[in-house]
Records
---
Amino acid sequence: MARKKIALIGSGMIGGTLAHIAAREELGDVVLFDIAEGLPQGKALDLAESTPVYNASVSLKGANDYADIKGADVCIVTAGVARKPGMSRDDLLGINLKVMKAVGEGLKANCPDAFVICITNPLDAMVWALQQFSGFKTNKVVGMAGVLDSSRFAYFLSEKTGVSVADIHAWTLAGHGDDMVPMVRHSTVGGLPLPELVKQGWMTQADLDGIVDRTRKGGGEIVALLKTGSAYYAPAESAISMAKAYLNDQKRVLPVAAWCQGEYGLDGMYVGVPAVLGAGGAEKVVEFDLNDAERAMFAKSVTSVQGLIAACKEIDGSLA
Ligand code: APR
């Protein structure tokens, strides 16, 4: 069987990290694409020169021409601009929407059967725009945000409780903004739901509230520290876990920006929900039971995403 082909659209901080992990894990041959000349070629060559050290039998290539991603099995999209301190993800909308148009057309012309994972922010609106511009089936286009937000949530819970991250299952739903919804009742440490941990004295309610708040603002915390850009290691690892679920038909339930038509009462939109990822892409949305408070938080976040989609439609009439 021929090797799989992984196309990385955007070869910046996340794109380069994705290429590194994809090569080390031998997911397939990697094409790094970017509009910047030399950047994808330089990163691809540097990474290719490292493969003899760890014996990875994959090729890495840099490209400025969409023809080079022809036939890709998986495309991970990070093209666009990242946040700087003082910016919200929504501030990126105007610039990144134009980028999604170019990327959508490039994917449509060259790899119409690919599974597409969008990382570019503002995530929920950009994954929607990418699906619209590419015309791909909604199950083959997803957004990466929930795996990252949930991983941050799990890490903070591990730090507080001293329990291994391996035994923590944390979930965040809804949009990838500061009004995301960390699912306190559905997340567990060693099988115990978080409210039970508070009852048993593992942490106070104030500790738990602090962790929820830090999770919501997790991206901004990294931006403030780095000063020149946004997070890239954890986003890259998160997208790779999604790519592996597709390539290996793992049927993993991961929180991703998936198309909801009826689920969670939504009438055709992308938002963060748990979904089964396998060879069919996003095969099924998993519906958590939400109580009134959770439903209200989810609705607030959905309203923000809908506002961003409306803004996209205003900027680009072809989306209306
Ligand atoms: N086509 C292809 N690549 C593009 C285009 C385009 N039209 N426009 C910009 N790029 C490239 C840039 O040249 C740059 O190399 O996208 C890359 C983005 O890389 P970084 O600026 O390093 O950003 P990164 O940290 O990788 O984040 C990318 O993911 O998490 C989100 O908010 C983040 O939207 C941002 C994206």
---
Amino acid sequence: VHSSLPRCGRLLSTSSRCRTVMPAWVIDKYGSNEVLRFTKNASFPIINYPNEVIVKVFAAGLNPIDVAMRGGYGAATLSMKRDPLNIKQSGSEFPLVLGRDVSGVIMECGLDVKYFRERDEVWAAIPPWKQGSLAEFVVLSANEVSHKPKCLSHIEAAAIPYVATTAWSALVNTGGLRKDNCANKRILILGGSGGVGTFAVQMVKAWGAHVTVTCSQNAERFLRGLGADHVVDYTAGPVEEPLSALEKFDLILDNVGGDTERWALKLLKPWSGSKYVTLVTPFMQNTDRLGVADGMMQTAATVASKALKHLMKGVHYRWGFFAPSGSALDEIRDMVDAKQIRPVVEETFSFSHVPQAFEKVEKGHARGKTVVQIS
Ligand code: NDP
């Protein structure tokens, strides 16, 4: 009902500016970097629900999922989320705006928004089924948004939300970690040097855990600087050998995937509630390949059988997922303001160089985050 209202309809505050177009980088089909197209005529976001806000984007962070989505990753799953009743034709997601992190300023609030006002400085992680932040403006639910840390620039702030809410979801919601239960816990982070890893190391270190990471040899100093207590170089040979020689772990966060599941769960303390949480799951591939219903069945069957197999050996096997959360970002902001976590911006690109920013992310070997300055 609301979506048919004009932008200047009754759900909007009186300050609606009634613009209809804005600059953005969009894709009109899935493919490699050449599908990225700059336009000055992207549709201006619309407040469809009274709990939504329009944010003027100052900086946008890129993530590996942006490169994957450019190539069609998650198309079936995300289309279902965008259009659950399957009313629209296939391809209706185009022109699609990528970019999952935003730091900016609230430009407009729906009438039910109480916690934010126009001109508030905010940050957010944008769910992949919504239009992204490689645009001048983006519309979000107020519960996905949080006031940004005052001590950070917009560029720095845009390096945090997506990886932070993913790490929060995996470590807190799935892994059961909290600031008051980490002291003396031994945590292993497989793949410490990228976006999620650099955030996760700082978070669990701030909560008092002992942190071991795996990374390339050339990232060792960098990760020790972020708080890692022990670093294992995966380029020197199979990591399972040096890791097996260490005291066992209470929790493993896997940012690498591949064959790690074959050996990593043996590194956990058995029968003590220890958990292996992997962020590299076949969930989207299953639904893209098999369709939503069969894909979900396949996913449920896979995770249930693995969880049961490992439970019989006394350890917990879990899949972790990104979850948008303004309240998690509120807690993360407090940690940033308390100087417990710092942003790790590896490289910044101007809005005219978005394709180069994608190339950078696609090359891999991240040491923190790639951020685009929008305005
Ligand atoms: P990045 O690309 O930012 O970082 C990956 C890092 O891993 C790089 O620093 C890379 O550096 C390092 N690396 C590569 N191979 C290994 C290895 N064998 N051992 C140790 N380190 C390695 O990715 P993100 O941090 O953003 O994401 C991490 C993973 O989590 C990705 O697979 C991503 O798709 C997934 N993810 C899943 C989400 C979900 O909802 N399930 C949400 C967010 C992320 P180098 O190659 O130089 O060693």
